[in-house]
């Protein structure tokens, strides 16, 4: 599935394989696997700030992690702090990998990640969790957009194998035969493709490469991972950094959480 979107930012974005290229944005915190219902109906989700249950005392809570979660996190923090006088939550958007490291070092109360904790990360969390271990709590879906900036090209179709080859520097010009075949009516330039990827260990990278593993295994010879494994391209920090580079550089393409498109 391919969908061309035009955003106010001027970026053109393809939400490619919308179901496959979507991760559950998670929070990592100390807890246990005891799911006994202590009362109340868990099927009823809070619908307004009046439904927010505040802690007995205010205070400061530090957290960090996925930059893909930043826009959602800002909204959650704003609503909680408005409802709970004296509460201060500071979420530093870094990367999924950095957030989990900070959590397991005891620096932060929770971490945001686009991928669940690995077994070794769960084991490491036992050192800082007074009871139980680090657990991953799915919070919201996080679609990944493929953003591109090519002058004169308003509509572009790219399938998984073609995308994988672009991000692995196997397709290097916009008028490559594979891109032409998918876009017979587009006026594609002969200019070089400039790809941008995340420089940090990113859950967004992990989820995109999971998609490549599943939909374009022959074109993407690497295992999915938070560090970028493809050849070539330039790196940028966080989803915001990749989106900013694509917006500025003609002939470029990159990936980021959909809200940055």
Automatic annotation (TrEMBL):
Domain of life according to the entry: Bacteria
InterPro entries membership: PBP_domain (IPR024370), Phosphate-bind_PstS (IPR050962)
Key word Lipid biosynthesis present: no
Signal sequence coordinates: 1-31
Keywords attached to this entry: Signal
Domain PBP: 58-260
A Pfam family this chain is assigned to: PBP_like_2
Keyword Signal set for record: yes
Similarity-based family: Belongs to the PstS family.
Name of the featured protein: Phosphate transport system substrate-binding protein
